[in-house]
From TrEMBL:
Protein name: 4,5-DOPA dioxygenase extradiol
Cofactor: Zn(2+)
Organism: Pedobacter polaris
Gene that encodes it: ygiD
Highest rank taxon of the organism: Bacteria
Keyword Cell wall biogenesis/degradation appears in the UniProt entry: no
MF term (GO), any: zinc ion binding
Organism classification: Bacteria, Pseudomonadati, Bacteroidota, Sphingobacteriia, Sphingobacteriales
Family: Belongs to the DODA-type extradiol aromatic ring-opening dioxygenase family.
Length: 274
């Protein structure tokens, strides 16, 4: 865990601020990146109501790596990591700057593992599809932190706590995934709304634990029941949630928004802490 003295030695130019909120965004379809709909409109509304961050650190389901990496380039490219969508989606560019100094300082905060400075990735759609609506002028630096696929939920929950001091420097820590995410069981008949019974039940269990600040079941999600495992056949879209709850202080409550199931087997339920 970083000490306060280490934090005071930051040289990235970020000023001390009030504690920034923390977000988990259910990002859903890449099309949400170019559509103005109930989900993207709420992302924009959330941004208007919170303090303007000095930087954004995104933990996206779509950067799954061996080891933990952080983007450390001046100008992270916009990554179109999907297929089969309209050309308009591939034409999107989100030209936010990076912040290599902040990347190094963030890596230095983490003592439990070595954070690798990355110059090859950029901003994938788990990041830009959401942030494009929040900060459309792309005038706030954005960094991405990868998810180490060799580690369990407890590791990511604990790693989040080592990032807590960033909140005092005006850094918005935004995780992006979906609590329930089983693309193999998608229903095109429910593409605009609706969920299977098991998806709704899984989501309700998650919501109850989040609102009660009962983090242990969320960390040990494999023990929460068969509907949970149907909702999380692979962990990449769920693990970003660990960063949001891991950064929650004892005196902070959580609120939910965009609480809706779509396509039968996905939930857009999102969380704000602080």
């Amino acid at each position: 865990m970083a000490t306060l003295n280490q934090f005071k030695n930051f040289t990235s130019g970020l000023a001390q601020t009030a504690l920034m909120p923390v977000l988990f965004m259910g990002h859903g379809s890449p099309m949400n990146g170019i559509e103005v709909n109930e989900f993207s409109s709420k992302w924009a509304d959330i941004a208007r109501k919170m303090p303007t961050p000095q930087a954004v650190l995104v933990i996206s389901a779509h950067w799954f790596t061996k080891g933990t990496k952080i983007t450390a380039m001046d100008l992270p490219p916009t990554i179109h990591d999907f297929g089969g969508f309209p050309q308009a989606l591939f034409d999107v560019q989100y030209p936010a700057s990076g912040n290599p100094i902040l990347a190094q300082e963030t890596a230095d905060l983490v003592k439990s593992t070595a954070i690798i400075l990355d110059h090859d990735w950029g901003l994938d759609h788990g990041a830009w599809s959401v942030i494009k609506h929040m900060y459309p002028e792309a005038n706030i630096p954005v960094l991405q932190l990868s998810i180490d696929y060799t580690k369990d939920a407890r590791y990511h929950y604990d790693l989040a706590k080592e990032l807590a001091l960033l909140r005092k420097k005006g850094v918005l820590i935004l995780s992006s995934g979906n609590m329930v995410h089983n693309l193999r069981m998608m229903s095109w008949e429910m593409i605009n709304g609706g969920g299977y019974d098991w998806a709704i039940e899984a989501n309700e269990k998650f919501k109850t634990a989040i609102l009660n600040k009962d983090h242990q079941p969320l960390i040990n999600y494999q023990t929460m029941g068969s509907e949970i495992m149907m909702g999380i056949p692979t962990p990449e879209h769920y693990l970003p949630l660990m960063y949001t709850i891991g950064l929650q202080n004892e005196n902070e409550s959580a609120t939910l928004f965009n609480d809706k199931a779509v396509a039968g087997s996905l939930t857009m339920t999102s969380v704000q802490v602080g």
